[in-house]
Amino acid sequence: MNDSGASTELDPELAALSYEAAREQLADVVRRLEAGGLSLEDSLALWERGEALAKVCDRHLAGARERVDRALAAVEAEDR
């Protein structure tokens, strides 16, 4: 999912979702898109929501990765 040219600002409602809630909603979006039967307009709107939800998940994962890196750095510093 690529956001080339798209704004990096997230809808505040989506930004407030936990990782688990965003992941579950993203999985639902994928299921609905894969099921088909939607109009082009509905499909595009759902795709855009999926893009935004993926961005929320990415931000949560990046934050978790940063916390792990800091914890590992602290442990390494104590070992020296």
Automatic annotation (TrEMBL):
The source's superkingdom equals: Bacteria
Q: Which reaction does it catalyse?
A: Exonucleolytic cleavage in either 5'- to 3'- or 3'- to 5'-direction to yield nucleoside 5'-phosphates
Instruction: Enumerate the GO terms in the molecular function aspect.
Output: exodeoxyribonuclease VII activity
GO CC terms for this protein? cytosol; exodeoxyribonuclease VII complex
Matching entries from Pfam families are given as: Exonuc_VII_S
One biological process term from GO is: DNA catabolic process
Q: What is its EC number?
A: 3.1.11.6
**Keywords from the named record:** Cytoplasm, Exonuclease, Hydrolase, Nuclease
Question: What enzyme category does the UniProt record give?
Answer: hydrolase
Which cell locations does it reside in? Cytoplasm
Quaternary structure and interacting proteins, as annotated? Heterooligomer composed of large and small subunits.
Q: NCBIfam families from the entry?
A: PRK00977.1-3 (NF002139), xseB (TIGR01280)
**HAMAP family in alphabetical order:** Exonuc_7_S
What is the purpose of this protein? Bidirectionally degrades single-stranded DNA into large acid-insoluble oligonucleotides, which are then degraded further into small acid-soluble oligonucleotides.
Q: Which family does it belong to?
A: Belongs to the XseB family.
- What is the recorded name of this protein? Exodeoxyribonuclease 7 small subunit
Q: Which organism is it from?
A: Allokutzneria albata
Q: Provide the taxonomic classification.
A: Bacteria, Bacillati, Actinomycetota, Actinomycetes, Pseudonocardiales
